[in-house]
Design brief:
This protein folds into three domains: 17-82; 109-213, no CATH class; 225-337. The chain is α+β, with helices and mostly antiparallel strands. The chain has helices at 22-33, 37-54, 59-82, 84-96, 151-169, 189-193, 225-241, 254-277, 282-306, 311-323, 331-337, and strands spanning 109-111, 125-127, 132-133, 135-142, 180-185, 198-205, 212-213. It has a five-stranded antiparallel sheet with strand order 2-1-4-6-5, covered by helices on one side. A two-stranded antiparallel sheet has the order 3-7. This is DUF4190 domain-containing protein. The chain crosses the membrane at residues 20-48, 60-79. Keywords: Membrane, Transmembrane, Transmembrane helix.
Amino acid sequence: MPAYQPWAQGYHPHNHPAPVNGLAIASLVLGVLCCLPGVGLVLGLAGLRQIRRRGERGTGLAVGGAALSGTGLVLWAVLIATGGASALWHGFEDGARGGRTLALTEGECFDTPGGALSGDTYDVHRVSCAGAHDGEVFATVTLPGGSYPGDDAVGDTADERCWSLQDGYAMDGWAVPRDVDVYYLTPTEDGWAAGDREITCVFGNTAEGEDLTGSLRNDETVLDPDQVAYLKAAHVLNAALDTAPDAEYVEDDLPGHRAWAGRVSAALGEQARMLRAHDWPARARGPVAALAADLDKARAQWAKAARAGDADAFYEHYDTGFDLIDPSLGVPARRALGLATTVPADDDGSDASVQV
């Protein structure tokens, strides 16, 4: 008599129970996961027919899967009808982006957990710009695709782009309080892997935890055409002044300072041309004409500095030309145009050396 390997639970080796229906199993799995409720319902019903016809096991599985899938199908229909499916998807999408649920746009104001704009920020709460808030978005920058460039590279790009874009949102720098600084929110490496390529440029208070109140926006959407024309002309000079060489002393880089003086001279000429080309209201014509005349005098001095043969000659014309772009010279024109008239101060308390 042949020997048999013992079976667990005392089954006879020739006892073959009926198989479990595969469609019933699949229906239950889909019903529990609720990912394809329509498919789960169809598989459950089909499984029941096969079980009756083939004598297979799994009736409970098929019934349970069909019931769960039917319930899931109803829930999905309700979500789609009410827009909840879109919100649910965005929730999953935000989670895939490393928890960064920002998606802020230009002009929006927000609060952060703890009120800080430093360190990791995973969530924000949109609030009205009219009241107190932690930050105000003034620009967004989309980075190119490819592999993650690294935290330092992303930070350097954010620093450069955000500083260059702030004037487009807050055109009148004189109207921006001294306690406001530029911050930015950047994608993490995990967020980058999930498709996040956006830098969010933000105005915030220089003192951590302190609020801003009221919107800082002053651009074409807020200002009138005369104000915009004046500020665009002023920005030409500001851009040139910002290209000063790294060397602080002329003696250390005379060629670099002469090239810079040439750029400033050209900008002064362009600024004066733009001011004269605009049709100003009667109240602003005299002050703007006087400013343009001062700019002409300044341009001549900066042009001589650009041709200086040595550091002493450079300083001579530079000092005179610098005095002729003193910000206070623009106050009468600004007052006539309804722009801010308080000259902003540098960190050392002196008047800022820009016309904006």
